[in-house]
């Protein structure tokens, strides 16, 4: 496994897009978080907005960048035919996929931590100006606070799980354009369908199985009782999706001709 | 206007590397012109510039007297095979040819004609992704023939072919040239062009090293060396040196003689009663002639023109 | 040097002509011969239709009187064919031929039930569009033609007619210290409204032509008060709208009529309302109190276009899912060539490079337009039937609007495909192109309709990004004189339908232009 890890790390490191993508992940997440925090204001009469969730809003866009980072690590190899070189050099296919997953998850965790910390900080600076003050009963995002810490750490995990989900799907689908379409469709469409159906039971079901809706429950610090799942259970839904995708991808890698 | 390819003073730089450095040559109709040189000599780049895929920094490349990009229905002017793998794997060979035909306003009937011509036959209705390299080369040639063009350009068509395939392409190219077409075939192995090309453009480091007919090239490279097997080595050396030849002993009973034709050597030795068992005029293979030319491409790069003319003058 | 042997080759093929049509045909052959692309495009259409029909079959409306289920009543329809809300308290008598009605309005007061923040009490107050004034109406049937001149709580004097038309008069709030004189004149089918501060100097507010107004109409006083709207954040995203009962009371005097009016007592009627709220039952019913020339009229409701029912474009929400598929197909249509070097063959066959992206764009646009058209037609036609069969009320609309929504959805597909294809030719990389198209079309739409973004930000997203194109699906116009939660999530876009589509088209054209430029410039 060490050799595979080293090889995959060298591959990802020497890929031209990796650096800029990680930078984009951090800047875009922070920028969108700050914009969302700046755009929402809370009147003195009170509001239902969750300040922590607002501060971490950028994760919803940042996840797209994570998908862009993750998908080409495997589908790019299929596109160029390099996968054959890879598998010739490292015939233990499952190990190769595991190595890819580990490297990707590691990179995403590092970049995600930076992005999430900066987003929380931006929220702390911006939100009080928009009426989210302790005087009005809003706790400012602070990592010393249990739920905030859970939301922040969970958001980092969320991004890493998105990377694994994307890798799994890309391994199964192989074509990069199709893979990215499937990933983003899965992420963004299910929540939207939840708003289209009128039946509340269906809405809650769709919410529960949607990797994005359920996964982002980890960011909630208010009105937890109204959510169909607890935050960690929600993140568990995403983890299940990621595991299923990696399993499917791993099987496809093992069973299908390269 | 005669249908030819004319390349004049092409220069192109990729970063630090001078890919083309004053490439100039003309391809004549009615014969197969081999376009040879080591890997990285600029063959593919030249072909891509001719086909308007790459833009040269300097110089120009004309097809039938016009830049490729200005051609109307280009496939009926030039047929080209650049990369046999440039296919959508999920499309059948016939469909691949069909879209090409449609782009030129040609009918499906023409597609079936070239499928027969290239010997694809019933395989044409299979997905191109499953083709062997040899089949892909045939498909590429079929595509090049689609517009029935007077000029054909094939980049490394022998790559990956089995001997049978190589023989097929050679024969096919010759027959196409015999119809009066100009055929330019690139290769990095001279041997592949043997028996196919009548004319050669040898390139190295982005420019033409030699532009000559195959017969002339071989004659030059053979440089009238004669191998003489004799038991009377020293007598023979004396006699031949006296007659003005350069003689070198290559073995205990073998001499290499240059500067005298084989018939003259036989006559001289018989006259002086020097015994010999074998006189063999050395005829270089195309491969040897090519290696001879490209061995020191650096030197040729500096003085390719004068040397080539010098050789011709010496003949 | 050997010279050429024999004569140069002359092809026996007839000389073809260089035409863009050939290129188009060639690209079409390319598209249809890759089975995966054809299947995927079909899937895009199926996704739209299936999601739409699923949505339709999942929507059920039942109405009940007590425990008994009955068919839901069909909301009234206005003179222009749109669904309307036509509820108000009407004090009237008939007028035959020309005439006019003049009155002085001295006071407007009212109540709002359980407003925010605590929703625990009934407070005095008026909603901004509470209205009282004089009206001429073609009978008392809900949805019949009318013209009315009124004072409103916050929007000054207005002249309104036939539910959708509104003209502003003098601003200001009515009070005993600052009363309003209102006069409505009928002359043939033309009605003219005047207002005055003192009953002597009159200013014209506006005129309305009510085509086909019969000779005998009902003329009189009216009071209406629309529900109080509040919007709150939904816990699963989106927003929850709540409308609460309100009531307005207006005091009129100096009432005078001119013309052939019916004699006797004023008729009184609560048009379109049953008056069954607890407030009306136990505290103050709608009605008229008349004493010594002073008319105190109390009423609730509104005269406005209604959105109570299913908007047909909701059936087409699946278009978003279809768009994702369309983006992927369009991008692959061009990047597949770059990946395998096939692009060189394409450029050899058509060396006028700028034409390549254009020809591809035309083909993909045509293909997905047809797919989108088929999907949208099936979805709307059958979806509507299913909705109606399930007891739902589908908001009526003109066939022109319906055609615009269906063809517009197809155009949305086509423009998106061109945009995505151009991005593919620009970047030459599938992932980069798909993600850019998604982040600029799909993601803004989702953020604008299904997230916690504030309404202002959501509207700007749908003005500036290619997602503006979704506006083509909007069927319900916004009315300045009807207070509603006009946000993208409710189907209201910040740009007019064609303007929104033009924004998307502009982006597509720009991207295609850049792609042509790039393909021309770069070595293949």
UniProtKB/TrEMBL annotation, chain A:
Signal peptide (UniProt feature, chain positions): none
Residues spanning the membrane: 54-76, 97-122, 149-170, 177-197, 232-253
Superkingdom field: Bacteria
Entry keyword set: Membrane, Transmembrane, Transmembrane helix
PANTHER family listed in its UniProt record: INTEGRAL MEMBRANE PROTEIN-RELATED (PTHR37305), MEMBRANE PROTEIN (PTHR37305:SF1)
Name under which the protein is recorded: ABC transporter permease
UniProtKB/TrEMBL annotation, chain B:
Keywords recorded for this protein, A-Z: ATP-binding, Nucleotide-binding, Transport
InterPro entries recorded: AAA+_ATPase, ABC_transporter-like_ATP-bd, ABC_transporter-like_CS, P-loop_NTPase
One Pfam assignment: ABC_tran
ABC transporter domain sequence ranges: 5-230
Domain of life: Bacteria
PROSITE patterns per record: ABC_TRANSPORTER_1, ABC_TRANSPORTER_2
SMART domains found in the cross-reference section: AAA
Single GO MF descriptor: ATP binding
Family of this protein: Belongs to the ABC transporter superfamily.
Protein name, per record: ABC transporter ATP-binding protein
Species assigned in the record: Sphaerisporangium flaviroseum
Native organism taxonomy: Bacteria, Bacillati, Actinomycetota, Actinomycetes, Streptosporangiales
UniProtKB/TrEMBL annotation, chain C:
UniProt entry keywords in alphabetical sequence: Membrane, Transmembrane, Transmembrane helix
Source domain of life: Bacteria
Keyword Transmembrane helix on entry: yes
Gene3D superfamilies named among the record's database cross-references: 2.60.120.200
TM regions (residue ranges): 34-56, 315-336, 357-383, 403-424, 431-453, 495-517
Name this polypeptide is given: DUF1349 domain-containing protein
């Amino acid at each position: 496994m060490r050799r595979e890890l080293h090889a995959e790390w060298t591959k990802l490191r020497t890929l031209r897009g990796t650096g800029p993508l990680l930078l984009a992940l951090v800047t875009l997440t922070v920028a969108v978080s700050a914009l969302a925090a700046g755009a929402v204001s809370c009147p003195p009469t009170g509001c239902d907005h969750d300040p922590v969730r607002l501060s971490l809003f950028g994760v919803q866009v940042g996840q797209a960048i994570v998908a862009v980072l993750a998908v080409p690590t495997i589908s790019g190899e299929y596109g160029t035919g390099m996968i054959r070189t890879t598998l010739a050099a490292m015939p233990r296919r499952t190990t190769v996929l595991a190595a890819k997953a580990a490297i990707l998850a590691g990179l995403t965790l590092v970049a995600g931590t930076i992005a999430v910390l900066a987003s929380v900080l931006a929220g702390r600076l911006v939100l009080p100006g928009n009426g989210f003050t302790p005087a009005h009963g809003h706790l400012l995002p602070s990592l010393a606070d249990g739920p905030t810490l859970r939301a922040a750490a969970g958001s980092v995990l969320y991004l890493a799980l998105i990377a694994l989900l994307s890798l799994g799907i890309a391994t199964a689908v192989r074509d990069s354009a199709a893979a990215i379409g499937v990933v983003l469709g899965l992420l963004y469409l299910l929540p939207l369908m939840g708003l289209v159906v009128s039946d509340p039971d269906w809405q809650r079901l769709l919410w529960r199985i949607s990797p994005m809706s359920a996964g982002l429950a980890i960011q909630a610090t208010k009105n937890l009782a109204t959510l169909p799942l607890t935050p960690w259970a929600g993140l568990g839904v995403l983890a299940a999706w990621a595991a299923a995708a990696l399993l499917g991808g791993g099987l496809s890698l093992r069973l299908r001709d390269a | 206007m005669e249908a030819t390819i004319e390349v004049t003073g092409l220069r192109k730089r990729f970063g630090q590397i001078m890919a083309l450095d004053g490439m100039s040559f003309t391809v004549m109709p009615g014969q197969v012109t081999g376009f040879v040189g080591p890997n990285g000599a600029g063959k593919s780049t030249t072909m891509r510039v001719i086909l308007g895929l790459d833009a040269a920094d300097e110089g120009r490349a004309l097809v039938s007297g016009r830049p490729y990009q200005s051609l109307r229905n280009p496939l009926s002017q030039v047929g080209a095979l650049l990369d046999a793998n440039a296919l959508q794997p999920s499309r059948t060979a016939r469909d691949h040819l069909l879209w090409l035909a449609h782009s030129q306003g040609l009918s499906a009937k023409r597609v079936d004609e070239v499928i027969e011509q290239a010997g694809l036959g019933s395989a044409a209705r299979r997905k191109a992704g499953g083709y062997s390299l040899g089949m892909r080369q045939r498909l590429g040639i079929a595509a090049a023939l689609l517009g029935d063009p007077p000029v054909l350009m094939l980049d490394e068509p022998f790559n990956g072919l089995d001997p049978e395939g190589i023989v097929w392409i050679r024969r096919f190219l010759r027959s196409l040239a015999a119809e009066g077409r100009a055929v330019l075939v690139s290769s990095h192995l001279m041997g592949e062009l043997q028996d196919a090309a009548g004319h050669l453009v040898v390139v190295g480091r982005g420019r033409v090293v030699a532009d000559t007919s195959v017969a002339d090239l071989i004659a030059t490279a053979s440089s009238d060396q004669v191998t003489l097997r004799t038991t009377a080595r020293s007598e023979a050396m004396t006699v031949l040196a006296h007659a003005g030849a350069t003689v070198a002993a290559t073995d205990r009973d073998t001499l290499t003689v240059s500067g005298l034709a084989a018939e003259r050597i036989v006559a001289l030795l018989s006259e002086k009663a020097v015994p010999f068992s074998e006189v063999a005029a050395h005829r270089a293979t195309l491969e040897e002639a090519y290696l001879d030319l490209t061995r020191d491409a650096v030197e040729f790069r500096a003085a390719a023109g004068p040397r080539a003319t010098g050789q011709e003058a010496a003949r | 040097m050997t010279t050429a042997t024999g004569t140069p080759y002359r092809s026996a093929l007839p000389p073809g002509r260089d035409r863009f049509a050939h290129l188009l045909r060639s690209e079409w052959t390319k598209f249809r011969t890759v089975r995966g692309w054809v299947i995927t495009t079909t899937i895009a259409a199926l996704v739209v239709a299936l999601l739409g029909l699923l949505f339709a079959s999942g929507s059920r409306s039942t109405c009940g009187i007590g425990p008994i289920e009955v068919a839901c009543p069909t909301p009234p329809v206005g003179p222009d064919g749109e669904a309307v809300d036509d509820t108000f308290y009407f004090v009237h008598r008939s007028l035959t031929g020309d005439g006019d009605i003049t009155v002085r309005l001295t006071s407007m007061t009212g109540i709002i039930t359980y407003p925010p923040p605590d929703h625990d009490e009934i407070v005095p107050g008026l909603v901004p569009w509470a209205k009282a004034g004089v009206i001429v109406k073609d009978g008392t049937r809900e949805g019949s033609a009318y013209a009315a001149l009124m004072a409103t709580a916050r929007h000054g004097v207005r002249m309104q007619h036939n539910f959708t038309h509104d003209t502003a008069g003098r601003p200001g709030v009515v009070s005993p210290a600052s009363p309003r004189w209102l006069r409505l004149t009928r002359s043939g089918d033309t009605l003219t409204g005047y207002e005055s501060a003192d009953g002597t100097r009159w200013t014209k507010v506006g005129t309305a032509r009510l085509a086909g107004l019969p000779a005998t109409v009902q003329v009189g006083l009216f009071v209406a008060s629309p529900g109080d709207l509040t919007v709150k954040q939904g816990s699963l995203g989106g927003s929850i709208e709540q409308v609460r009962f309100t009531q307005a009371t207006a005091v009129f005097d100096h009432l005078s009529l001119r013309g052939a009016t019916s004699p006797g007592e004023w008729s009184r009627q609560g048009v379109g309302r049953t008056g069954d709220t607890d407030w009306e039952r136990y505290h103050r019913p709608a009605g008229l109190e008349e004493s010594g020339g002073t008319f105190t009229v109390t009423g609730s409701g509104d005269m406005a276009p209604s959105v109570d029912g299913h908007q047909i474009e909701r059936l087409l929400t699946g278009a978003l899912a279809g768009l994702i598929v369309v983006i992927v197909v369009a991008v692959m249509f061009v990047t597949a060539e770059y990946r395998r070097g096939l692009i060189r063959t394409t450029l050899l066959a058509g060396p006028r490079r700028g034409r390549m992206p254009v020809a591809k764009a035309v083909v993909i646009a045509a293909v997905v337009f047809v797919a989108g058209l088929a999907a949208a037609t099936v979805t709307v036609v059958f979806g509507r039937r299913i909705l109606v069969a399930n007891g739902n009320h589908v908001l009526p609309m003109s066939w022109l609007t319906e055609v615009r929504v269906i063809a517009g959805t197809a155009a949305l597909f086509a423009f998106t495909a061109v945009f995505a294809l151009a991005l593919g030719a620009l970047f030459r990389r599938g992932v980069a192109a798909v993600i850019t198209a998604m982040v600029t079309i799909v993601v803004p739409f989702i953020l604008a309709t299904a997230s916690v973004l504030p309404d202002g930000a959501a509207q700007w997203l749908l003005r500036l990004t290619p997602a503006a194109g979704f506006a083509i699906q909007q069927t319900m116009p916004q009315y300045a004189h009807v207070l509603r939660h006009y946000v993208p999530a409710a189907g209201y876009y910040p740009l007019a339908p064609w303007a929104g589509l033009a924004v998307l088209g502009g982006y597509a054209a720009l991207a295609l232009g850049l792609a042509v430029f790039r393909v021309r410039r770069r070595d293949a």
